[in-house]
Write a structure and sequence with these properties.
The structure holds two protein chains of two kinds. Chain A is 39% helix and 15% strand. Chain A is an alpha+beta fold. In chain A, helix 1 packs across helix 2. The longest helix of chain A is centred in the N-terminal third of the chain and has 50 residues. Chain A is elongated and about 90 Å long. The mean pLDDT of chain A is 86. By secondary structure, chain B is mainly α. Chain B has two domains: 195 residues, no CATH class; 35 residues. Helices cover 69% and strands 2% of the residues of chain B. Chain B has a two-stranded antiparallel ribbon with strand order 1-2. In chain B, a hairpin with a 2-residue loop joins strand 1 and strand 2. In chain B, helix 1 runs parallel beside helix 7, helix 3 packs antiparallel against helix 7 and helix 6 packs antiparallel against helix 7. The two termini of chain B are 39 Å apart. The mean pLDDT of chain B is 84.
Chain lengths: 248, 243
């Protein structure tokens, strides 16, 4: 029997059958790898926290630590900030991860403020580590970005990350970056807006060099960091204010 | 050993796609990704591997189904088949190579829209048997990769002074080696200080930016076409003479 491939019923039946078969194949693969992908994403966050807290913990080489060792290390020493709001998530303004010196949760050595926003192409997400008093930047790490490889994508490179890293800046004789709220009208962080002229300049100790050839990513990152820090410090300030007495 | 007609057709398709019908410099297909990913050799390599996989397997699958596919929906089916293989690559990289996924994730999905894949399905796999179609897809993927990797090597070297992420002597340092070697030879007969010339070379940022891709790809296509045309002219029987 010869198939009439032009008959509308055949066309609909064929497309439905082929689509169902291929979709089932992809769905099976997706389900089979879902746990692994979820674990990878969780691990990326733990590795990012370990990276950004490394100067505070004096961790030298993370590449020698296994995935499980990093998970255990971070789990033992990091916890979300004490709940300021009933439903605390990373997206909640004022949220930060707190890093303790040891597993016994004694001395706090750093905090990491999550940030996210749209870069030149897509979402950029990461953590900005600050000192326990939230006044100075310790380092930065990115957990997600889809900027142009070789250009904006170079925000992931150690050379760029070192521009935020306090020990690396001090080794170069530069001031650590200030994270505390700036004067009215000024920004928290400046990326690639020229060298500050001196302590009177609003960019003093708040400026990092941009990536050559990645102006749009640098501008987007500056905007993301400033928006997130502004929101973070506003939320902290609001939470620290004593609650107004209830009206009688 | 005698080859079957199918095997001969497959081998012919594979070889033709590598050079005589190369998708980049003869058919001018897949230029968008050629411009986008070639600023780093490693990214280019991964993109090429994904494209070879997608082209070979979607050609074979489309060829297998070709007699049952209604003509009016063949393009929808082509896109569906290509998308399935590309999504498989995407999921596999996310699951097993998460660090690499962070770097090239945005480009993997773009393989679906690469005109080489659909072009081979439409031009070859829709009319030929499974094995020649798979080899045709493989050949076009390899032909694409050959040009892209050549372009990527030039761009990464001139832009970053590196190849696949490994630092190599830049043109300034190479000149310095030459100058030092020249001075060493002269010193066999007299005395001369090697000139310090390494600093003349600065990383060529334009090469890693999109305009750099246009220049290098154009030069690569020019060289390849000139060579191919000369070969073809030499292979033509000469006109005139005794008949």
């Amino acid at each position: 029997m010869r198939l009439n491939t032009k008959h509308p019923a055949y066309v609909i039946g064929f497309v439905t059958l082929v689509s169902a078969a291929f979709t089932a194949g992809i769905a099976t693969l997706q389900v089979a790898t879902a746990a692994r992908i979820e674990r990878n994403e969780g691990l990326r966050k733990y590795r990012a926290l370990a990276t950004v807290f490394a100067p505070a913990w004096d961790l030298k080489d993370l590449s020698e630590m296994s995935d499980q060792a990093i998970l255990d290390y971070v789990n033992a020493r990091v916890e979300p900030t004490p709940s300021r709001t009933p439903r605390e998530t990373e997206e909640q303004p004022g949220f930060a991860y707190r890093a303790y010196a040891g597993a016994e949760h004694g001395k706090i050595v750093a905090a990491a403020i999550p940030f996210s926003g749209i870069g030149f192409w897509a979402l950029i997400r990461g953590f900005l580590a600050v000192t326990p008093d939230f006044k100075e930047v310790l380092g930065i790490v990115f957990t997600e970005q889809k900027e142009t490889p070789g250009l904006g994508g170079r925000i992931m490179e150690p050379q760029f990350l070192a521009r935020f890293n306090r020990p690396a800046r001090q080794a170069e004789g530069k001031q650590p970056l200030v994270a505390a709220p700036p004067a009215a009208g000024a920004s928290y962080i400046y990326i690639g807006r020229g060298e500050p002229t001196g302590p009177g300049d609003p960019r003093y100790a708040r400026s990092v060099d941009a990536i050559t050839g990645a102006t749009q990513t640098s501008l987007a990152l500056e905007k993301i960091l400033n928006q997130n820090l502004r929101r973070f410090y506003a939320a902290r300030e609001a939470a620290d204010k004593p609650a107004a007495p209830a009206e009688q | 050993m005698t080859l079957t007609p199918t095997a001969i057709a497959g081998r012919r398709a594979l070889v033709a796609q590598l050079w005589d019908e190369n998708p980049i410099f003869r058919q001018v297909l897949g230029i968008c990704s050629a411009l986008a990913v070639t600023n780093l050799v490693f990214n280019t390599l991964l993109m090429c591997a994904g494209l070879i996989w997608a082209t070979a397997l979607s050609s074979a699958t489309f060829s297998l189904l070709r007699n049952y596919i209604p003509a009016r929906v063949r393009m929808i089916i082509q896109v569906l088949i290509i998308a399935v293989y590309v999504i498989m690559v995407d999921i596999a990289i996310r699951a097993y190579y998460p660090d690499i996924y962070q770097m090239i994730g945005p480009y993997v999905g773009l393989i679906i829209t690469n005109c080489i894949v659909m072009g081979r399905l439409e031009a070859f796999a829709s009319k030929n048997r499974v094995w020649p179609s798979a080899l045709d897809g493989l050949g076009s993927g390899l032909g694409y990769s050959f040009i892209l990797l050549s372009v990527a090597c030039v761009r990464e070297y001139l832009g970053f002074g590196a190849l696949a992420g490994y630092k190599v002597p830049d043109p300034g340092q190479l000149t310095q080696y030459l100058a030092s070697a020249g001075a060493w030879v002269v010193n066999l007969f007299g005395h001369v200080e090697a000139p310090q010339v390494a600093g003349w070379w600065k990383a060529w940022t334009l090469m890693i930016m999109p305009p750099g891709a246009f220049f290098v790809l154009a030069v690569a296509v020019w060289i390849a076409r000139t060579y191919a045309l000369r070969r073809e002219a030499a292979a033509q029987p000469k006109k005139g003479g005794a008949s």
